Amino acid sequence: MQSVCKSTILSSKITQKTLNDLEFNTVIDSIGEYCGSDLGRKAVQKIRPISAKLKLLEQLQLVNEYLGSFENDNKIPNHHFEEITEEIHLLNIENSFLEANAFLKIVAISETVNLQLKFLKKFQEYYPTLFKISSEIPFTRELIEAIRKVINNFGEVDNKASDQLKRIRKEINSVRAKISTSFSSVLSRYAGFGYLDDIRESVIESQRVLAVLAMHRRKVKGSILGTSKTGSIVFIVPDSTAKLNRELQDLIHEEQEEIIRILKKLSDVIRPHIELLNSYQDFLTALDSIAARAKYAQNIGGLLPKISNTKKLFLKDAFHPILLKNNRELGLETVPQTLELNNKQQIIVISGPNAGGKSITLKTIGLLQVMVQSGILIPVHERSEVYFFDTILSDIGDNQSIENQLSTYSYRLKNMRNFLRKCNANTLFLIDEFGTGSDPELGGALAEIFLEEFYEKGAYGIITTHYANLKVLADELENVTNANMQFDAKTLEPTFKLYVGQAGSSFTFEVAQKNGIPFSLINRAKKKVEPEKIRLDRTISKLQQERNKLRRTSADLEKAQNKAQEHTETLSDKEKKVQEKLESFQQLYESNQKMLTIGRKFNELSNKYFQTNNKKQFIADVMKWAAIEKSKHQKKNKPKTKTEKKAAKKHAQQQKQKLEEVKKEVLEEVKKVQKVKALVAKKIAKEKADYTYKLNDRVRLIDSNSVGTIEKIEKNKATINYGLFTTKTSLDKLELVEAAKK
């Protein structure tokens, strides 16, 4: 359990300066707001990048499992607890004892831990990593039962704690009853004499006293305990109850001594379990820290990206969490960035206008990398990939050192010396405004040399700059890539979108124009700049505009194509419906024509009948016409002759015989195929049975469709990573889908 709480060890290769540059503490403070205990908040404040990879993976998986609990029906029970640090400290002191309320806190924390242990054991397939850390703690009710025998739910020592205590409390109740009876009797008597004030009685030093008028104090037998402020009332304890009060005080003292004896005895019972209580508190503290990180991840849309074993960093739709939170409060949109570092794109040089988003893009990558290496989920697309760097170096902002009397450039040179000493193939470096602080030509030349050194050492990194020579160098070096922050030259507004593949213009004069600098001054400034530089900047700017135009055109064409496709599909549907309607109209037309023909014939016969009035002739004509129609119908549906029937029967038999022959041939072929398949299946089964599973093999559970990746193998058990969750199962229950690539 101690391993969980010591997961905040600071990696010596990621300095506090880097964490400060990236505003890591702001993220930590935000996470702390989700904690339910002071110990949890203190644990969160200690979170730092973790140097041990296995420990880091465990922390990430713990948070990921807790985050997953928000989306399923098996939610992790409440684990709020009261701190028992002082109680544990007191138990460590010999002959000390805890107060009754302290034991209730121990009961509460024990029951909370037991609830978590039972839950995680029941749902260990859902939360295997959480179950793993909980399995180190023993499930026991020994402490709870021992305390419940002595302390009741109100935080008092119960009567059943000892026979002596039960006897004393019985006597106390008896004496109190006697005092009440005696005092009531005296009160009634002196009230009848008119010796008492209107308030009649009061309580002083836990004793009932008579409120006697000062003029009658000598008439009341008893001890004076005090007077009112005005002196008009004297408070007297009657002699008849004084003795009983002394007896009561003796019993109360005796009761207190017995309670202390019982509490000491109970403390001695609990004292051997100090380590268990420490593990309880450590476990719930760790759980509070994990829950806080999960709640923070839920708030910012954080998730666990794929952990790459090869040196590759791919962040898709990455958000800066602090900027995201601030913009959300202001109702502003946050633009995500997508960026990739790999062996073919080792270093990215970002250029573009000031206030265009260069620095925030660099900080986004750095902060997310530090977060994920500290066991915190990050707001990126699920297809993102991260790699664990041993060293993360940063040089961000104006770091003028007043204390050491160093200028910005001197300070940055000192930083570069540190970079050159620590930089290696497993380093991620982040440099904002690379090369600034000195003469542009001389500082730019030195920056080129530094960049070449980082490149030669195989380090990955992101730098921002305005220097043209660094943009040119980025094009010349094979695995260094230019990138730029987009700028709308028409509106003179940055779009905050990163485009990788081409250097960007600084838009110096355009930004000056946007900020209200007069055209006359801008034109004078242009004349002081070398024509080649203006032409280069103008060319870059023009290329950016053309590229943006092409991208917009491409997007418009894609939209038009999609629209045309939808239109075509709509026309096809309409054509089909029209065809169906035409067929329906054709049938209706034929039916109507037939009805018209019948109607005309009947009309003809009716007219003839009206003219001749010959009923017999009319019936004969109708019957004759009906017979003709019947004959036509029968002729159309005339049954086949014997010869035709015989021929049709023979043809049907031939067809049936041919079908049987084909069926027989097909069955024989099927049997052959089945034999081949059986042999192949047997061979595959043998290969699978003989196959030794390795890390990163893609597998699935037998009779399951979900495919996962083997993350860990221990004896005959394998941990399978399905992306959103992991599970542990026996190797003999697995089916190989794809072997890991060598």
Please tell me about this protein's structure:
- It is a single chain.
- The protein has 742 residues and is α/β, with parallel strands linked by helices.
- The strands form five sheets. It has a six-stranded mixed β-sheet, sandwiched between helices. Strands 18-17-16-15-19 form a five-stranded antiparallel β-sheet, with no helix packed on it. A four-stranded antiparallel β-sheet has the order 1-2-4-3.
- The protein folds into five domains: 2-158 and 269-300, Orthogonal Bundle (MutS, DNA mismatch repair protein, Chain A, domain 3); 161-258, MutS, DNA mismatch repair protein, Chain A, domain 3 (Orthogonal Bundle), CATH 1.10.1420; 306-518, P-loop containing nucleotide triphosphate hydrolases (Rossmann fold, 3-Layer(aba) Sandwich); 573-636; 691-738, SH3 type barrels.
- The longest helix is centred in the C-terminal third of the chain and has 82 residues, at 531-612.
- The protein contains 22 helices and 19 strands.
- Average pLDDT works out at 82
Structural class: alpha/beta
CATH superfamily of the largest domain: P-loop containing nucleotide triphosphate hydrolases
Distance between the termini: 36 Å
C-alpha geometry: extended
For the largest beta-sheet, the strand count, sense and barrel status come to: 6 strands, mixed
Please compute the radius of gyration using only Cα atoms. 46 Å
Q: Quickly count the domains.
A: 5
Flag low-confidence runs.
2-12, 399-405
Looking across the biggest beta sheet, what order are the strands in? 10-11-12-8-13-14
Number of strands: 19
Strand content: 5-15%
